[in-house]
Amino acid sequence: MALTLGKGHIVQNLIQLPATLYASASYIEKYGRMKNVCDIVGHRFISTLKNYENIRFIDWLHKAIPEGQICYRTSDYSSMLAAVTAGMGIAPIERWIDNSRKDLIPLFESPEDWTNNLWLTTHRDAHNTPKIQAFTQFLKEELSNINLR
Q1: Which of 110, 112, 114, 127 is placed for a possible disulfide with 57 were both Cys, Cβ 3.0 to 4.6 Å?
Q2: Which regions of the chain are under pLDDT 50?
Q3: Start and end residues for every CATH 3.40.190.10 domain found in the chain
Q4: Burial of 68 (0-12, 13-18, 19+ CB in 10 A)
Q5: Which one, of 117, 95, 96, lies nearest residue 11 by Cα?
Q6: pTM of the model
């Protein structure tokens, strides 16, 4: 399904991307495994420098985790992944990462409201051109192959 947005933009919701909390095996060995989002006592977390209230799992970090349990803050996703992989703490990460990062362990099922939508926006004048349609079809096919458990 596509919607027309503003002055001639076509917007399509491509996929929903659920997230959950991840840790490394070395972190779990040292600190134990969280059982759910309420089981935060005694755990260390990796967070962002600022809150993104529109991203529910980042908003959760900023509201639910006491400052003393945040061991590292970053402004980019690759640093967050590196810190989790190094065993520094726990961080929320989208589930598609399971396909390429076997060194990260999902701690539990994705909380129901920790899902982001991935949108594709094209301009109305270009939307029906062969190259845009080919790229859109390619994206849809590739995204349908992602394992989101």
Answers
A1: 114
A2: none
A3: 17-116
A4: exposed
A5: 117
A6: 0.81
